[in-house]
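During the second half of the funding period, the structural biology subgroup turned its attention to how the target accommodates small molecules. The most pressing case was nicotinamide-adenine-dinucleotide, which had performed well in the primary screen but for which no bound structure existed. We therefore specified the complex as follows and requested a full 3D prediction, including the ligand pose.
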Amino acid sequence: MQLKDTVALVTGGTAGLGLATARRLVAAGARVVVMGRSPETGRAAAARLGPQAVFVAGDVTDDDAVGRVLDAAEELGELRSLVCCAGTTYSKQILGRRVMRLDEFEAVVRTNLIGTFNVVRQAVVRIAAQPLVEEDRGVVITTSSIAAWDGQSGQSAYAASKAAIAGMALPLARELAPHAIRVVDIAPGLFDTRLMQAVPERAVEQLRGQLPHPKRLGAADEFAALAEHVIGNSMLNGESVRLDAGLRMAPI
Ligand SMILES: NC(=O)c1ccc[n+]([C@@H]2O[C@H](COP(=O)([O-])OP(=O)(O)OC[C@H]3O[C@@H](n4cnc5c(N)ncnc54)[C@H](O)[C@@H]3O)[C@@H](O)[C@H]2O)c1
């Protein structure tokens, strides 16, 4: 699907992988709505992206906020692409002195899984109403993680939320196929963003040592390049694509 003169919504588009994706989509000629929670960070991000981008504040778990963001996207033109990058990480054991509380587990699942589903379910109603252009009416990209398969000790909440996101790609793609809307999940490995800075340095070093090739953290623009490709390549559908330099995380 061509991006030029279409509208894309990028959740978590004010930082990290989402911001890099918004930058790519703008460069490809799309008008982009970036959604995030902090108005300050969001406005600064939109200013850097230029006149083709607007920031709309909102939390992905908030129904009404997502509706308002989608209204803003439709004001810009034909909404065709959704890239879900909003997410959080969290790590805590379930046995020991400082154990993960139930509300902490729920909060991670709520942001990552329910937040993603909330945006997808509302966005596809709008995308499905667009006229068909060539083969596709639109594309949905979700972001899981290789932790969906290779989660570390302490990552039960994060890994569960990400495994569920990866698990939605095929059933959503099957459901949305009659509407010519594709759904593709991207499962990043280790990327150099603020989220990765929350991981203890020793753990990052140990994981870096396990990388087959290249032995470095990915750059956010490398994620963005894949997101752009997914939108353009109509044969990609119902799949979770690992973007991980061949990493299969062993326990650390
Ligand atoms: N960086 C990595 O190595 C890596 C690896 C695997 C998966 N991921 C996933 O990629 C996605 C993007 O991560 P990143 O590395 O760019 O992190 P990041 O922290 O730089 O960006 C995440 C963005 O999501 C936003 N966000 C968080 N909760 C939100 C909510 N409830 N509503 C709206 N926005 C919200 C944040 O404000 C931020 O802008 C996340 O889902 C993350 O789990 C990242």
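Two results from this model are relevant to the next phase. The chain has a mean pLDDT of 97. The first strand starts at residue 7 and ends at 11.
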